[in-house]
Amino acid sequence: MMRYKEEKEAKKEAFRKYLESSGAVDALTKVLVALYEQHDKPSSALEFIQQKLGSTSISDHEKLQAELSDLQMKYNELLAAHQQTCKELEEIKSSQAMVVTSTRETTDSESPKNVL
């Protein structure tokens, strides 16, 4: 039982050292101090912390989601228009190929045959 507690404490200490060496403890401390020093406390402490750590707020996230949705719709519309244009181009190419083939056949039948 004692060894389990020692292992657990060692893991906790290793994690603390990791957080300290990576700068996470300092960053969190600075943000919490800034929140503490606010005279008018924000309505959402979590949003304040996210903003200070460089994360987007919930409202920013919602705006970005709406923008993504709009851009996805525009992309789908442009893709459909592109596919339609490609289809029309293929139809023009094949109809033009038919005209060329038809013209060749007409020209070949009108040209003089082996004259000797």
TrEMBL record:
Gene3D superfamilies: 6.10.250.1060. The keyword Iron does not apply. Its main location: nucleus. InterPro entries: AMY1. The keyword Repeat does not apply. GO terms for cellular component: nucleus. This is c-Myc-binding protein homolog. The lineage of its organism: Eukaryota, Viridiplantae, Streptophyta, Embryophyta, Tracheophyta. Keywords: Nucleus. It comes from Acacia crassicarpa. Belongs to the AMY1 family. GO terms for molecular function: transcription coactivator activity. Residues 97-116 are annotated as: Disordered. Residues 105-116 have a biased composition (Basic and acidic residues). It comes from the Eukaryota. It is found in: Nucleus.
